[in-house]
């Protein structure tokens, strides 16, 4: 990790919930916006930060072109979404050219069309940035400055880093052990024979934990060989909501059962 990337993360540590607008995260006052965005994307590729983007220019994708040739009565889009597709049928446009208002509604419709593959972003702008759980783990357990040279760091950056280290190390250890105990308690209470479905744990711990926080805690416990996470093979015994409470995988069914080792 280079110095600019480190400073970007340290700026993020000083924000509430480790989340901020991209405009607040320049490594220093002289860093141009293009360099700041490049740093953010590089950190995002390594899953150290997450970020949201706003589409500033869009074009229709091949599936969208094919959709416009179908009978309008059976299209899997709303009238407003269809209007967006028609607006960009002949070339790339800015969101304002769709004539959809208000802007917040327009952006939500564009995001939905992009997610389903009907349009393609031509130009995007980073909006909000947040520190991911892997990013927290990297700063807490893995980062080590290497090589010669000086690292110019403000006292505020150092204070934020020290506060982060103290808070997260205490929270992670305490919460993980508590979660493990809750898993064991639920297994005994429900008689699940050391195959506790994750949805029971979510019902117990969400809130106060978010879904991502609980998933990351389970991954940490698995890395420590305290639990195993097993995929669901037979879906008929559970509702769709219970199945969706599992942890999705790129291949195969979701991780669904927790086994204490």
How is this fold's topology laid out?
Elements: H1 3-13, E1 19-21, H2 33-45, E2 49-60, H3 62-68, H4 79-87, H5 103-115, E3 119-131, H6 133-142, H7 155-190, E4 196-197, H8 198-205, H9 211-223, E5 227-231, H10 240-244, E6 255-260
Helix pairs in contact: 1-7, 7-9
Largest sheet: 3 strands, antiparallel
> What is the 3D form?
flat
User: Helical amount among residues, as a percent range?
Assistant: 40-55%
Q: Based on helices, strands and strand pairing, what is the structural class?
A: alpha+beta
Distance between termini?
36 Å
Task: Please tag this protein with its features.
261 residues, alpha+beta, 3 domains, 3-stranded antiparallel β-sheet, 10 helices, flat
